[in-house]
Amino acid sequence: MIKGLTGGQAAAEALRQINPAVMAAYPITPQTPIIESYAQMVADHKVDTEYLAVESEHSALSAALAAQVTGVRATTATASQGLAYMYEMLPVVSGLRMPVLMNVAARALSAPINIHCDHSDVMAARDCGWLQIFAENPQEVYDLNLIGLTLAEEVSLPVMVIQDGFITSHCLEKVDLLEDEVALSFVGTRQPPYSLLEHAPTVGPVALPDSQMEAKENQSQAFSQALETYPRLCQKYHQISGRNYDWTQNAFLNEAQAVLVALGSSAGTLRYVAGKMRQENFPVGVVKATLYRPFPYEVYNHLLSPIPAVGVLDRSLAYGAEAPLYTDVKASLYEETWRPYLESFIYGLGGRDFQAKDAREIFLSLLGEVE
Amino acid sequence: MDLKSLALQPSGLAPGHRTCAGCGIPPIVRTVLRAIDGPKIVVNATGCLEVTTTIYPYSSWEVPYFHSVFGNAAASASGIDTALTFLEKKGLLPKGGKPKIIVFAGDGGTYDIGLQALSGALERGHEFLYICYDNSAYMNTGVQRSSATPKYAETTTTPLGSASIGKLEWRKPLTEIVVAHRLPYVAQASLSHLLDLATKVEEANSIRGPKFINVLQPCPTGWGFDSSQTFTLAKLAVETRFWPLYKVELIEDQLKWSITAPVANPKPVRDFLEGQSRFKHLFVPRNSQLLPELQSQVDRRWRELEQRSRSF
User: Fold this and answer.
1) Is the minimum CB–CB distance between B76 and chain A shorter than 8 Å?
2) How far apart are CA A117 and CA A80, in angstroms?
3) What gap in Å lies between CA B150 and CA B107, rounded to an integer?
4) C-alpha to C-alpha distance for A162 and A145, rounded to whole angstroms
5) DSSP B47
6) Nearest to residue B13, comparing CAs of A202, A114, A18, A126?
7) pLDDT (tens digit, 9 = 90+) per residue, A154-188?
8) Does B123 sit within 8 Å of A66, measured CB to CB?
9) Are strands B100-106 and B40-44 parallel, antiparallel or unpaired?
10) A63 with B76: Cβ contact below 8 A
């Protein structure tokens, strides 16, 4: 069924079909369309979910975590300072291996306070043990919620499904929804390994130096498992939806001389510009990083090592270091004896427009490097 | 109920935990859990109780137990309560019925870092019993002051010195702050009056909604007394009116205050203070003006409590 939905509403539609037991949320711009849409669904009894309107993001994630420990599904959504306020809970949720689904409408971190899109919030949360998947548009927000939750539960890790604040969260587009039964059958029911209701587990114990490393190593292995599980789920999802997802989503890579790698909504701009430039016989292409954590190094190595010039777009800074996505892409190419010309571009901080002319300029400058 | 039959109930907390000798926490936890029948879920804030009972791969807990961080015990209880509500509506609860949620948190996790989460959970009206074991400082991290620390107490962050006579502020009146949320049941209890504590737990447990009991927990390590004196100190706190035992019930939207352990002939507050090394500086001649100040505050607070109890 095709509906006109914003990214926020698309997340809510996926959640409606998942029908989790608990939605724990605290409002923050630009996540509000997600939780408002969902609150209305609860009010109209379109879902069985209990809506828990907590007094802070810290409590939102705490409550979602605690709810999951009873064996049910719980979800939350946030952005920016809200995600920062959750920071203490992020590694706790992943350390306890609870597959909480969290939608993030990515937004700049203060200061200066700014409500618009960049990726500084999700990048600051990058090493907290969560799966991170970036959606380009409302359709992807919907699809990746279903894929993301299934992945999270298969490997017992929490997942952030990330959409660009305002650019995607408030942008109305056509979204093709699965039938409710089809979506529900894809996500199945949660099969928790243990629950506070079935046994008398001690959840959240103290680990001393004799056991902490084992727990962390297990957690790390789950990310390797996620890397293998993800393409299988994407294939399964393709069968029911006809839509293709992969570690990356690529365009115009054939014989490309200059390729740009990006996360989120800008990939659409890049694809549009690359398409135009191809008509003018400029050999440019696009790699969209969809699954960001775990990072599929081999995939990037395979895709980018034959390309003469690669540019990496980051919508966030790593102060005193190279930008996050750039660092990952660069690392993926280390093993090669011949490596592409590689350049880092920081763009779009605090919602600064990234336009077709900017993309064209970057493509041309990269092509200039390989002439 | 009598103490003997109470003691025969399963406590949920096995022996072999690692609390200090003379710690007041285990008898509080056991008394509370013994006073509640049926399935339970214990939610715990980070602190002494958590670190001494859950060192992997061992656990002292014979009931389901959940801990995640320091400041979120009430938010955790909210999440579990909400999940239980969902399961109840769906008819998916286990056969034993809906478990009772009991939160245990220290004063740090309640008066300070957990206050926002507590206030939010109380306002939302979740179904849980919150027990604060108030040892009046951050004992687990080495006796730093909290907002529950009494005035003039020496702690490692309010040390004595040529320019310091310990903590300078009055303790936060947390029980009254909780009462201001107009819960169905709020009480103060003491380790020395276990039957009073058990009765309050039973009363609280029979009422729907959030319930709160603040229990004074003498701490030999942090207060500086011999580990044989824990119950004596708890008793002196009551007998000197330093820690009044009372309950506040919401009856027909009116708060009814009742003193549950009247103290007709109170001992001077010095009897409670002088056995504790954290107050030793109150008993040197140059500080002789401090003790009367503490005594008059205790007297004032008791009069307030009496007035509230009478006015109903």
Assistant:
1) yes
2) 9
3) 12
4) 9
5) S
6) A202
7) 999 999 999 999 999 999 999 999 999 999 999 99
8) no
9) parallel
10) yes
Q: Which residues are paired to A210 by β-bridges?
A: none
B135: amino acid identity, one letter: N
Nearest CA to B103 out of B213, B232, B236 is that of: B213
Helix (H, G, I), strand (E, B) or coil at B70: coil
Q: Which long-range contacts (CB under 8 A, 24 or more apart) does B24-28 make?
A: B24/B133, B24/B135, B24/B191, B24/B217, B24/B218, B24/B219, B24/B230, B24/B234, B25/B49, B25/B52, B25/B133, B25/B135, B25/B217, B27/B191, B27/B194, B28/B131, B28/B133, B28/B191, B28/B197, B28/B215, B28/B217
Q: Which of B64, B87, B123 sits opposite A72 (nearest CB)?
A: B87
For the record, the structure tokens of A302 come out as 């395979």
Please compute the mean of the pLDDT values over residues B151-172 and round it to a whole number.
98
CB pair distance less than 8 Å for B80 and A55 = no
How many angstroms separate the first and last alpha carbons of chain B?
A: 27
Look up residue A82 and give its two tokens: 């809200």
The strand pairing partners of B134, in sequence order, are: B216
CA distance A168 to A106: 9
> Global pTM?
0.97
* Distance (Å, whole) CA A54 – CA A58: 9
pLDDT at residue B311 in the model? 66
List phi, psi (to 5°) of A342: -130, 135
Q: Closest Cα partner for A298 from A341, A336, A343, A267?
A: A336
Inter-chain contacts counted by CB atoms under 8 A, chains A and B? 147
B312 pLDDT exceeds 60? Answer: no
Whether the CB-CB separation of A344 and A366 falls below 8 Å is answered with no
Token digits for A70? Answer: 């009873």
Cα A239 to Cα A370: distance, rounded to the nearest angstrom: 40
Q: Which residue has 């306070």 as its token pair?
A: A113
Residues in A touching B82 (Cβ below 8 Å): 21-22, 24, 50, 52, 63, 67
Three-state DSSP class for residue B75: helix
> Which pLDDT does position A199 carry in this prediction?
81
Nearest residue of chain A to residue B87 (CA atoms): A21
B65–A88: do the CB atoms touch at under 8 Å? no
Give the burial class of A112: count Cβ atoms within 10 A of its Cβ; 0-12 exposed, 13-18 middle, 19 or more buried.
exposed
**Taking residues A260-268, what's their average pLDDT?**
98
Count of CB atoms situated within 10 Å of the CB of A105: 33
